[in-house]
Amino acid sequence: MGLFVEAFTGINARLNIQLAEHGLGSVDFEVLVRLSRSPGGELRMTDLAAQTGLSTSGVTRVVDRLERDGFATRRACPTDRRGSFTVVTPAGVAKMHEVLPGHVALIEEWFTGRLSPEALDQLLSSLRTIRDAVRPGATSGVQGQPQDVRAAA
After folding, report:
1. Where are the transmembrane segments (predicted)?
2. 19 CB-near residues (< 8 Å, 6+ apart)
3. Exposed, middle or buried: residue 20 (CB in 10 Å: 0-12, 13-18, 19+)?
4. Best-predicted range by mean pLDDT (53-57, 78-82, 100-104)
5. Which of 1, 22, 38, 75 has the fewest beta carbons under 10 Å from its own?
6. What are the backbone dihedrals phi and psi of residue 33, each rounded to the nearest 5 degrees, phi first?
C-alpha cells in the first residue's frame, strides 16, 4: 500500500503543478473532466458527488467556484424539482482544451509511457476492480465512458 501511495502522490504532485499553472485545482479539473465526457456535458449533482467521492456540500462548493469562473452552470432537473444538473459551459470546454495537452503529456511521461501496453491493461483492469469495490458510485450517471486512460485523459 505504501508503494501505491508513494507512486500516486508523486504523479499527483506533478499534475497539480501543471493544473495550478492554468488556475485550476485538482478537484476543479476532475469535475470539468467528468462533465466534459458525460452525455450533453452535464451530470446530476448527486451523480457528480458519487463520481468524485465528494460530499453534497463539497460538490456544491466546487460547482459554485466553477460557476463563478464561468466554467460551469446549474440547470434545474425538469422531472425532479429537488434535483439539478451541473453543465459545462463553452468557457469550461475551452479551459479543458487549454489544459489537456500538457496534462496528457505528463500522464504519458510519468504513468502510461512507463508501462508496456500489456502491463498498462493489467494495471487498469486491476484498478477498476478495486475502484468498483471501494467506490461503487464512481461511474454514476455515465454511460459509454472510455475505458483506456490514454483515451479518457
Report:
1. none
2. 25, 26, 28, 29, 99, 103
3. exposed
4. 100-104
5. 1
6. -60, -50
Grid cell in block for residue 126: 486491476
Q: What's the length of the chain?
A: 153
Contacts of 80 (CB under 8 A, 6+ apart): none
- Contact partners, residue 86, CB within 8 Å, separation at least 6: 31, 35, 42, 43, 44, 45, 48, 59, 63, 66, 72, 73, 74, 75
CA 31 distance to own-chain centroid: 5
- Give the three cell numbers for residue 41: 456535458
pLDDT at 46 over 70: yes
Q: How far apart are CA 44 and CA 63, in angstroms?
A: 12
Give yes or no for a contact between 42 and 127, defined as CB atoms under 8 angstroms apart.
Answer: no
Mean per-residue pLDDT, 50-69: 93
Residues in Cβ contact with 51 at an 8 Å cutoff, skipping those fewer than 6 apart: 34, 43, 137, 138, 139, 140, 141, 142
Sorted by where each starts, the structural domains of the chain and their CATH numbers stand as 2-137 (1.10.10.10)
| Residues 79-105: b if buried by 16+ CB within 10 A, e if exposed | eeeeebbbbbbeebeebbeebbeebee
The C-alpha cell at 52 is 468524485
